[in-house]
């Protein structure tokens, strides 16, 4: 039976087991997970937090990571400013980016999700409000969520991937991992 690991990737951790060619040593998956034979199914940028799935099954890895399977990925996104209904609707309908329009997405304003403190903390600016969004996409372009929110005038301050398909971060602290129930 394939093994599937759910990992809550902290900020500033690379989504790989080694950091070749870097002049400064950066945190990698090997600092948190000592399980031979598992590899990330997809990626999560170094400056993003949240759910990263790892598996020892190449077919499962492809099914999770390949956009053709349209597995929804849900993000909790703290943005600069307070997006109005038109900005949220643009996110939901798809945004034109340099590499083409995005697919329609689930997009909604949400209350502060009361997540763990981020290290380092978000820069606080007294005169600039922030807002939280829930954004679910079914593709995974490079830095897509950040580019989408910027395209509607609300740069991303904090990005946490909460779920991939039915797998969620629920009950996982940053840096912790657990095996998924049978896949």
Explain what the structure shows.
By secondary structure, this protein is of the alpha+beta class. It has 2 domains: 4-67 and 169-179, Pseudouridine synthase I, catalytic domain, N-terminal subdomain (Alpha-Beta Plaits); 72-164, Alpha-Beta Plaits (2-Layer Sandwich). The chain contains 3 helices and 11 strands; from the N terminus they run E-E-E-H-E-H-E-E-E-E-H-E-E-E. It is globular, with a radius of gyration of 17 Å. The model has no long low-confidence stretch (mean pLDDT 92).
CATH fold descriptor of the largest domain: Alpha-Beta Plaits
What is the N-to-C succession of helices and strands?
EEEHEHEEEEHEEE
CATH H level, superfamily name of the largest domain: Alpha-L RNA-binding motif
Average pLDDT across residues? 92
EC number: 5.4.99.-
Pfam families: PseudoU_synth_2
Family: Belongs to the pseudouridine synthase RsuA family.
Keywords: Isomerase
